[in-house]
Amino acid sequence: MSLLTSRVKKYLHPTCSNADGLPCASSHRPPPYISETDFLSRILERDGVIEAFCAQINRQALGLQIQAFVHVSLRDHLPETLQGFKAFVLSHDAVLECHALSGQYDYLLKIVAEDVDAFDEVLTRGLLAGHGVNAANTSFVLKQLKSTSALPLPETA
Predict the structure, then answer these.
(1) How far is the C-alpha of 35 from the C-alpha of 109, rounded, in Å?
(2) Helices (H), the chain
(3) For each of the chain's 157 residues, which pLDDT tens digit applies?
(4) Cβ neighbours around 22 below 10 Å, total
(5) Which of 117, 126, 147, 151 has a 20 to 30 A CA-CA distance from 69?
(6) pTM summary value
(7) How far from chain centre, in Å, is Cα 19?
């Protein structure tokens, strides 16, 4: 392993132990039926370093030809407005990501759809229909140059 964060490094140090008394990967050998990789993965998952395991699926292979980023400005920031917007975002599978922003816009959404008509349906009958949205500015993805969920990790000495 050549790329590790300082948080992950502690799991490989021989004196490692957790506050809950459970051993780290380096201070305890895995049972014979579990590989060292699986053992370390389970510890990292238990401690919240690994959030989930998932497959990266090609959206176009599923017929999702449209990908767009939508900058959203809310009408106000009253609790009921924020709750209504959050409810919309969490209930629509087409919304893959939602990020609260500083600056000109309140949120940035990443939305996928089968085609322009399906995207328009999500936008006009969903997002813009009574969820406290004052303005939405859409940018359609023409070409994806890079997409990864891998985090940059520092080189270890």
Answers:
(1) 40
(2) 6-9, 36-46, 79-91, 116-120
(3) 433 455 555 555 444 445 444 455 555 566 677 777 787 788 888 888 888 878 888 899 999 999 999 999 999 999 999 999 999 999 999 999 999 999 999 999 999 999 999 999 999 999 998 889 999 999 999 999 998 888 887 776 5
(4) 12
(5) 151
(6) 0.73
(7) 28
Pairing of strands 66-74, 133-140: antiparallel
**Burial track 95-114 (b if 16+ CB lie within 10 A, e otherwise):** beebeeeeeebbbbbebbbe
Residue 63 CB neighbours (<10 A): 10
Nearest to 107 by CA among 94, 125, 89: 89
Phi, psi of 92 (to 5 degrees): -110, 115
> Looking up tokens 């890079």, which residue turns up?
146
Q: How far apart are CA 44 and CA 38, in angstroms?
A: 10
Give the CB-side neighbour count of residue 80, counting CA atoms within 13 A.
1
